[in-house]
Design brief:
This protein is of the alpha/beta class. It has two domains: 4-127, Rossmann fold (3-Layer(aba) Sandwich); 132-225, Orthogonal Bundle (Arc Repressor Mutant, subunit A). Helix content is 41%, strand content 21%. It contains eight helices and twelve strands. α4 (88-96) links the parallel β4 (79-83) and β5 (101-104). α6 (157-168) crosses α8 (192-207). The longest helix is centred in the last third of the chain and has 16 residues, at 192-207. The structure holds calcium ion (CA). Calcium ion is lined by residues 10-11, 53, 55-56.
């Protein structure tokens, strides 16, 4: 599974090493050396996961986590805190503030990768490789294939990501802004109308297998993927 990961780490050598390891296993890495820089970055692009150093100059990692959790737009982003301390109380504080996991330096690339996988599986199923199925519609992230019985549904890359997000977050209303953040990773430079265009394409592709009605318009709000 490949994710967009924001790495917030002030020590250049450690930042370099972690970024290298993440890229090696296929992730895309955004970097910030301060909490302030991280918060600015997140205003434009939402990462799939944040690796957040506890001890940062200026705004601390703990404070960054707190701010992200108190904002509707960023509260769901999985956070793994990185720290040099192995203090049990710090761990509890970090988790109480909303971090999803906690890893103590020094850690091996394998350990980090395992933690990332576990957190993503729990918090962001749309970027894992698990097959999803709704009403006979089957999406396999590994083969990038969508099918129903023996029919293959042909989708463009954006429609595929959109469908994957919908299928892993069914029965909820998603606004266009949320979809831009979640599927495009960008609600600033992409127009909301773009969402409607891809929804139309997705529906017409799903019509072939009789699944178009799963993509519902919620008037004045956005879209919902629902089998009801
Ligand atoms: Ca540090």
């Amino acid at each position: 599974m490949a994710a967009n990961i924001l790495l917030v780490e002030d020590e250049p050598a450690i930042q370099e090493l972690i970024a290298f390891n993440l890229v090696q296993v296929g992730h895309q890495v955004l970097r910030a050396s301060t909490g302030e820089a991280a918060l600015v970055l997140i205003r434009n692009v939402l990462p799939d996961l944040i690796l957040l150093d506890w001890m940062l100059p200026g705004v601390s990692g703990v404070e960054v986590a707190k701010r992200l959790r108190s904002d509707e737009r960023t509260r769901h982003i999985p956070i793994i805190m990185l720290t040099a301390r192995s203090d049990e109380q710090d761990k509890i504080t970090g988790l109480e503030l909303g971090a999803d996991d906690y890893i103590t330096k020094p850690f091996s690339p394998r350990e980090l990768q395992a933690r990332i996988k576990a957190v993503l599986r729990r918090r962001a199923p749309q970027i894992t490789d698990d097959t999803v199925e709704v009403q006979g519609l089957c999406l396999d992230p590994v083969t990038h294939r969508v099918s129903s019985n023996d029919s293959i549904v042909t989708l463009g890359p954006t429609e595929f990501r959109l469908l994957h997000f919908f299928m892993t977050h069914p029965e909820r209303v998603h606004s266009r802004t949320q979809l831009l953040d979640q599927v495009w990773g960008d609600h600033v430079f992409v127009e909301e109308r773009t969402v409607d265009v891809h929804i139309r394409r997705l529906r017409s592709a799903l019509a072939a297998t009789g699944h178009a009605a799963l993509v519902q318009t919620v008037r004045g709000t956005g879209y919902r993927f629902s089998s009801r």
